[in-house]
From TrEMBL:
<dbReference type="InterPro" id="IPR050584">
    <property type="entry name" value="Cholesterol_7-desaturase"/>
</dbReference>
<protein>
    <recommendedName>
        <fullName>Vanillate O-demethylase oxygenase-like C-terminal catalytic domain-containing protein</fullName>
    </recommendedName>
</protein>
<feature type="domain" description="Vanillate O-demethylase oxygenase-like C-terminal catalytic">
    <location>
        <begin position="93"/>
        <end position="268"/>
    </location>
</feature>
<dbReference type="Pfam" id="PF19112">
    <property type="entry name" value="VanA_C"/>
</dbReference>
<dbReference type="InterPro" id="IPR044043">
    <property type="entry name" value="VanA_C_cat"/>
</dbReference>
<keyword id="KW-0560">Oxidoreductase</keyword>
<dbReference type="GO" id="GO:0016491">
    <property type="term" value="F:oxidoreductase activity"/>
</dbReference>
Length: 280
């Protein structure tokens, strides 16, 4: 059953601003739940009144519907002094939650979908990089990525080559580490926490941990929302809707190393919620 593995993961289902407006009724793994309370006193219940564990971390409310939740992944940068922690709202997307993560990992589409911001022609080539499954931490990592970007961040004043690291910390969570324009010795952190409403619809919660004392909060949020809204139309038109895990179902290219590792990792874990498998 595709839902079995997914039950014991943690999912973001609200941020502090949403929580402050009152109870949020939402869908998680085909199940209706209601999120309410405060960041210090959280409640997540289903339609029958059954309660689920909840915690507040990385600016969001997290819950799990399983009987034996795995530990919530760690993002150490969230606790570093001087970083601005920026929850960026939520975007509803009619696509597989796994498709949303895979799209976040893809740099080849930057010049064509995020023209003038994250990429531009003729800078379309994806240079060789490394993607791997790290068994010691049970995560997917992509390293040694460099890509020209006209405006890599809200704080960037000019275009230039941007260094990237990608990390898939959970099947529905991806973290990006990239060049920090105002602090070259550090890296900005941008993540997406994907809430799988169903296998073909999700809520995406972007979040950032930045060294940026200049940009207005609203401007930071708008910058990130603009990027993801550009992705939404692409995501909602991908076919098949679910993410194929069999390499024969879609033909990869050299630029798809991270996607290939991600799909192989999902398959090895039995993380099939939102996926299309050979047996489906």
């Amino acid at each position: 059953m595709s839902r079995a593995y997914a039950l014991n993961d943690w999912y973001a289902v609200a941020d502090a601003q949403v929580l402050a407006r009152g109870p949020r009724r939402t869908m998680l793994l085909d199940q209706e739940v209601t999120v309410s309370g405060t960041t210090d006193d959280l409640r997540v219940i289903d339609a029958e009144g059954s309660a689920y564990p909840a915690q507040f971390r990385y600016g969001h409310v997290w819950t799990s519907l399983g009987d034996a939740p795995r530990p919530l992944f760690d993002i150490p940068e969230a606790d570093e002094p001087g970083r601005r922690l920026v929850p960026c709202g939520v975007v509803r997307v009619k696509c597989s939650p796994l498709r949303a993560v895979e799209n976040f990992l893809d740099i080849a589409h930057f010049p064509f979908v995020h023209t003038g911001i994250l990429g531009s022609e003729p800078h379309t080539e994806v240079a060789p990089y490394k993607a791997e499954i790290r068994d010691d931490v049970d995560e997917v990592w992509a390293t040694k990525i460099s890509f020209y970007q006209p405006q890599a961040a809200k704080s960037a004043e000019a275009g230039g080559d941007t260094q990237y690291l990608y990390r898939v910390a959970a099947p529905t969570t991806a973290v990006l580490y990239k060049t920090c324009p105002p602090k070259p010795e550090a890296m900005d952190v941008i993540a997406i926490f994907v809430q799988p409403r169903t296998e073909t619809e999700c809520d995406v919660w972007p979040w950032m941990a930045l060294y940026d004392d200049v940009s207005a909060f609203a401007g930071l949020v708008q910058f990130q929302q603009e990027i993801f809204l550009q992705d939404r139309s692409i995501l909602e038109n991908q076919r098949p809707v679910k993410l194929p895990l069999d390499p024969k179902m879609e033909i990869p290219t050299r630029a798809d190393l991270t996607s290939i590792a991600y799909r192989r990792w999902l398959k090895s874990k039995g993380a099939f919620y939102g996926a299309l498998t050979e047996d489906a």
